[in-house]
């Protein structure tokens, strides 16, 4: 598919043509990437030829992201759902070569594509167009600063100041973590000094999660995509020291950050804010148990008829869709007062527990025989062998189908019936049969 003349004349502000020169290969890539964003495709770095002595790039090729075809899949043949084929063998590309003056010139250029191009409104979703430039980054940072400044003006419900005392170092950490959630950052435990004799904590430091810088990467040098740098050398911190009364006091506090803070609506995404409290965990546990009881009753009643089963399945599908919609639009702002768990359960219950039927098919796992077997000594094995031989004697062979046989036994001590002989110990049965032999 060729680019139309109207698009090539005024559709984009980044013209590409043969003979254009660039200061570096990266500059050429950026220009071609802007051209691709205006046209509607993504760019792939194909190859780079380098000087064997000094190692600088002599030539390079940039192609369309749909160039060529995917190589043969060498994975297991039992894979049912393979990845969708995205390449079409597109031949659009440019080749740049290094000149004697150190600049790079376009020596080959093909602008024809064999696939439909994406509209400019969706170009930001293409692989090579997902990065924002410096101007956009500054704009986003400015917006975040405005939001955080407006939230910080409203006041923080968890104040932090010099001289505050806490019962323990964990109490201080929890307090500073709540303060960080309100401000929009995460907390890292930096160090802890301990008494060398008794081992208790004497001082501790908590910092912002962007404190310092990452240490040098000692992995293999062939790694192409390293982890993104997240630290900025932030100096925000608190230091607590143990006092003579056993409490911890803030002896140093720095509240200034050198990076933009996250809004409170996104604080739950931060590393130290992802844990739920004990009260929240209790509410979730109570809701889960109650829902299990309700749906067990629904399953037992709906499985008795075909119409009930179809109705339950239809309602379950609708419920799953609605739950996904609720979870997607759920707000994480807990400022509004929430109802108690008892009131919430009383409003959501719609099944009468008095009419609940017993769920069939759910059996508790029985313990294996291996778990109950105990090692026996030689004397115990000999005693059991004698008992079994006494029970198998002709005097004890009777017909189990007769119901009146237990009445023939005139035992003063209550003896079990012969049909349950396997459930009792061999010693008791043998003694009972020896004292009162049966006559048929």
Automatic annotation (TrEMBL):
Transmembrane segments: none
Domain FAR1: 31-118, 174-262
Protein name per its UniProtKB record: Protein FAR1-RELATED SEQUENCE 12 isoform X2
Highest rank taxon of the organism: Eukaryota
